[in-house]
Design goal:
Radius of gyration: 17 Å
Largest sheet: 6 strands, mixed
Structural class: alpha/beta
Distance between the termini: 34 Å
Length: 242
């Protein structure tokens, strides 16, 4: 298996990973303007990009996912709740598994940052049948969590984020690596660490937000004042239009 973590504009992180033996790869959360870069990375690895996935409809940057899929012949994928969008995509369901040769990717629906947010649980079967890492998008970052206020309904979304983090991600094995979609400087969360990876166990032990009761969590997360993304509506419009 190979894994590339790519630092992007606006302190976001994108990924290219897959199975060299079978020549198959997946790209995740690619920015507009980085499409040729990812195509070249795949070519250098000798792999075909089979899937291009956005963990959610982004509000902080224009996605390059659909363009990269068109450029490489890959399938562009989003969570199935985005079914009303005016373009075709591969709908992903909670619990669904995508195969990349010796690598498998399980979809976890983790709403809270957005309604459609997913995480991707990745297993390299050449090493074992237990998952190796989870791509957490903007739901959970190192030392912090994703903001729930992007589309209003802040308290409702904070409640859903609590369920996604505490009931879906925290029960995963402590050894599991967390690879987030944002790092320090991103407008998608407050207090995000500059370290671009962590583990479930370390975050359980040292991320104080994750030890709060539901009521405390909702109150604390909803009260955090984060910088506005000035162009949020125009970015969402681009990412959801033909």
């Amino acid at each position: 298996m190979f894994l590339e973590q790519v630092a992007c504009d606006k302190s976001s992180l994108a990924y290219l990973f897959g199975c060299v033996g079978k020549g198959l790869a997946m790209a995740v959360d690619v920015h507009a303007g980085d499409e040729a870069r990812f195509a070249a990375m795949a070519q250098a690895r000798g792999v075909k990009i089979q899937y291009v996935v956005d963990t959610h409809i982004h509000a902080d940057h224009v996605s390059g996912g659909r363009r990269l899929a068109a450029l490489t012949g890959a399938k562009y994928a989003l969570h199935e709740s985005d079914h009303s969008l005016p373009f075709e995509f591969l709908p992903l369901a909670d619990g669904q598994t995508l195969s990349l040769g010796n690598v498998s990717v399980k979809v976890l629906h983790t709403p809270g940052h957005t309604d459609d947010h997913i995480c991707l649980l990745v297993t390299d079967h050449t090493r074992g049948d237990e998952p190796w890492f989870v791509l957490t998008g903007h739901s959970r970052c190192v030392g912090s969590i994703g903001r729930p206020d992007l589309h209003g309904r802040t308290h409702e979304m904070a409640d859903r984020l609590y369920d996604s983090l505490v009931n879906r991600l925290l029960p995963l094995p402590d050894y599991l690596e967390i690879l987030p979609g944002a790092q320090a400087g991103s407008a998608c969360g407050g207090g995000i660490s500059g370290k671009p990876c962590s583990t479930i166990g370390f975050e359980k032990r040292h991320n104080p937000t994750l030890s709060k009761s539901r009521e405390q969590f909702i109150e604390e997360v909803s009260a955090v004042v984060l910088p506005p993304i000035d162009e949020i509506q125009s970015i969402i419009k681009i990412n959801t239009s033909l």
